[in-house]
Design brief:
The protein is 39% helix and 23% strand. It is an alpha+beta fold. Strands 1, 2, 3, 4, 5, 6, 7, 8, 9 and 10 form a ten-stranded mixed β-sheet that branches. The longest helix is centred in the C-terminal third of the chain and has 24 residues, at 350-373. The chain is globular, with a radius of gyration of 25 Å.
Amino acid sequence: MTARFLRYLEKVFGWSAMMERVRDSRQRPQIPGATILMCLMLMFAMRLKSLNALEGQLRTVGAWRGLVGPRSPSADTVARVAAAFDTECLRDFLSEAVHDLRRNKILADNPWALRFAVFDAHEFFSSRSRHCSQCLVREIAVKGKTVTEYYHRAVVAHLIGFDLPIVLDIEPLRPGEGEITAARRLLVHLLARHARSFDAVAGDALYFEAPLMALCREHGKHLLAVVKEDNPALLEEVAALTKGPPDRERDEEGRTARYWDVEDLRTDAIQEPFRAVRVEETWTQRRRVAGQWVEEPCKSHWVWGTTIPPRLLPARQIRQVGHQRWRIENTIFNALSRDWAFDHCFHHDPAAILNLQLILCLAHLFVACFRLRNLKDPGLRTLSLIAVTTLILMGLATLAARDVPWRALVKKPRQPARAGPAVP
């Protein structure tokens, strides 16, 4: 399975070309940057949970010699080089991988007329003792005492509507700034690399604000965000305009949904016209109470604000996208944190944290795409993603040197060009 996975990486994504272009800030590297990137990508693809676990594999399993060359790096070396990697180069690799998926028609079956990039913030880890220059700080109460806690948080952009877990980019929050500030900076990164991969930005109530909406309009993108109690003026206005009968009523997925669609709204904070969609959902929930099944009626109310006109996306699909926004919590945050060590601090350095997160998302995408598109045997199609990673790890025992398409890249380090006269 390991050789099959490596051949798939080379054929579909051109992995050897990515490794050859990786850059780091070292002047005279003893171990090539391609070797470190290869180790990190396979560490995440095999779900090794720490750099020490990677070092144990490198020392005990002989098949790693064909992958990383004659000299295996230590855990400290991998951590140090991870902090020295060029972050923009890794972002380019993630962008190229998404472009390859689009070129191979893997992202052709979008369920809606627009492609949505969901923005949401995630806290990775916290500590009360160790911290760095980019740590966020908060005060918490522990046993009646105030304790200073340091943590790292970032805004993640995820492409929804597809079976693959596609993370477009990650932007960390800096000390003293809020989530929406990092989200605007992340949107600028996406417009430079993924402008054709998404048509609209979706987020929670925090993202329904004028500067972000203006930035989206300036670059031809739309915005969709849920409206909650923190915007009471807009909620009251939408409720006043939707007192009559609903515009549409449908039975979908065991629920009855009633739709109200209002256009050309404005508020004191948002002067540009936008559209509001209010949805009232009713359904029956079956619960086990005192040994008996009891059916209880349930009701929920949703209001979404958006710049998408009805001709591009009807109210029914606005509701679908609004509920799909939670997919980033289950598919990305929960799955990666539980099974892929997304919340583990491999090396407490600001650059290393972001670089390792980008490589992890890249490896996760590679394995998911390999399972979905390459494993067509009837006995393999039922394998879970975790089972595939286990088979890739087990396959190292039988991996031959001829099965590695990029052996020449890891044999010796590439010396950087030096300015000035040659030193004898």
